[in-house]
Specification:
Elements: E1 9-13, H1 18-28, E2 32-37, H2 48-54, H3 65-71, E3 74-78, H4 84-95, E4 99-102, H5 106-112, H6 116-122, E5 127-132, H7 147-153, H8 157-161, H9 175-198, E6 203-207, H10 208-215, H11 217-226, H12 230-233, H13 239-257, E7 265-269, E8 275-279, H14 283-293, H15 297-301, H16 308-313, H17 315-326, H18 331-338, E9 344-346, H19 350-354, H20 357-361, E10 365-370, E11 374-379, E12 384-385, H21 403-409, H22 414-422
Parallel strand pairs: 1-2, 1-4, 2-3, 4-5, 5-6
Antiparallel strand pairs: 6-12, 7-8, 8-9, 10-11
Length: 427
């Protein structure tokens, strides 16, 4: 039996979750996916499940189910793209490929010679798909990001899922990555369809921030057209009830914090009771820089905390100490301190999300004229195609607005339409 994507070759230069899951979807339908891994370290997702199990955040198993679900139906090769020889092999593979997928940041694409402008010279028909944290334009396009920070916290998802006094405490691995994977797969298939018609390849961009806002389109669009946040119209519960709820959730959070192993994978509360989510899955890379940024060099110099194992042993105490430090400054005071030093994001409300400078610079929103409401703003399509992008040609229709137009196009006459109305077949 012929598979839907049989004959389509995909080069997958990515790791962790979003882009590998996109590639897996294509592989499930028959595409030949070649997953490129670093010869020394491999894909970091290979050790993710073990780390989650150690933190009591994953079902213990000898089966590496996390690796299986994100990378089944693929073939793996190792290439060192920092070496010219590795890049030459990649270019040769790309010459005969249909799709190239990556989640490298823009400066890494340039460093390894795999940016779209380079690969389209190697293969003009290539469909080039990528997922980034914050988009490929704007002042923060190269900041490190995970779905926990970009998709979840910064988009406003935990804010709309919570109520005063009862914050959202839990987040599951790759929750946003999986949605971004579907968006990218949809965009890639769109681009393949266009290429089938025109012979032209193009780039498809997806960001975690944009995808997160897309997931809460109902709330984001409401804020865009009204300028209102929940607090502007929704009644708040009694303060004493909020206090009781906060005490209970704090105790539960501390219980699970005691089981955690990485103090750089947590949400901390600022002096003005705002929340900042931090996620460093490679904590050794960020520990000293982070401690210096928050003014706690003493933690970095403490022999107990200089290794990942040491920090895991003392994780609860460290989280309390770091929490106390974050409680000394407001959110606005912490943001410039953290920027560029660690993957992080503030838990934003709706007004902050729709006015986020990076969201606006990276194309998350679009304005259009509405015959009834005038100029309004909405969310743009989260799959950004470089040559044939989505656009807004008309507003959402009134009920039955185009009945006569569509029936005339289908070959019915005005007499037919009158008869349909008389028979109450149409309105």
């Amino acid at each position: 039996m012929t598979r839907a994507l049989e004959g389509i070759k995909v080069i997958d230069v990515s790791q962790v979750a979003a882009v590998p899951m996109c590639a897996r979807h294509l592989a499930d339908f028959g595409a030949d996916v070649i997953h490129v891994e670093n010869p020394n370290t491999g894909d970091s997702w290979r050790i993710f499940q073990d780390n989650q199990t150690a933190a009591m955040s994953a079902v213990p198993s000898d089966i590496d189910y996390s690796w299986e679900v994100y990378n089944r139906n693929k073939r793996s090769i190792t290439l060192n793209l920092a070496e010219e020889g590795g890049r030459e092999i990649l270019y040769r593979l790309t010459e005969k490929a249909d799709v190239f997928l990556t989640n490298l940041r823009s400066f890494e694409m340039e460093r390894f010679g795999v940016e779209y402008a380079k690969l389209t010279n190697v293969n003009p028909r290539i469909i080039y798909g990528s997922v980034s944290g914050f988009g490929k334009s704007g002042p923060e396009k190269d900041l490190p990001a995970y779905d926990t920070t970009a998709y979840w916290a910064r988009s406003g998802i935990p804010y709309v899922f919570s109520v005063p006094g009862v914050p959202v405490l839990a987040y599951r691995p790759a929750f946003g990555d999986n949605v971004a994977a579907l968006v990218l797969a949809y965009g890639v298939m769109m681009a393949l369809f266009v290429r089938e018609r025109t012979g032209v390849g193009q780039e498809v961009q997806v960001s975690l921030l944009h995808t997160g806002m897309y997931q809460i389109s109902f709330d984001i669009t409401g804020a865009l057209v009204t300028g209102l946040d929940f607090a502007d119209w929704r009644e708040s519960p009694p303060p004493e009830a909020v206090t009781q709820a906060q005490m209970a959730t704090t105790e539960i959070a501390l219980f699970y914090a005691g089981k955690a192993t990485n103090p750089l994978a947590a949400t901390y509360t600022t002096r003005d009771l705002r929340r900042i989510t931090i996620l460093a899955l490679q904590p050794d890379r960020y520990w000293k820089t982070f401690c210096s940024a928050i003014g706690r060099e003493d933690l970095a110099n403490d022999p107990r905390y200089q290794t990942k194992e040491g920090r895991a042993e003392h994780c609860l105490a460290l989280r309390r100490t770091i929490g106390e430090t974050f409680a000394t400054k407001t959110l606005e005071e912490w943001l410039p301190v953290l920027e560029g030093n660690i993957p992080y994001a503030p838990v934003q409300n709706l007004k902050e999300a729709i006015n986020d400078p990076q969201a606006r610079a990276s194309g998350c929103f679009v304005s259009y004229d509405h015959p009834k409401y005038g100029r309004i703003e909405g969310l743009s399509n989260p799959a950004l195609l470089s040559k044939m992008p989505a656009d807004i040609r008309m507003p959402a229709p009134e009920c039955g607005q185009h009945t006569e137009e569509v029936l005339l196009e289908a070959g019915y006459s005005w007499e037919d339409i009158a008869r349909f109305k008389e028979q109450k077949v149409i309105a």
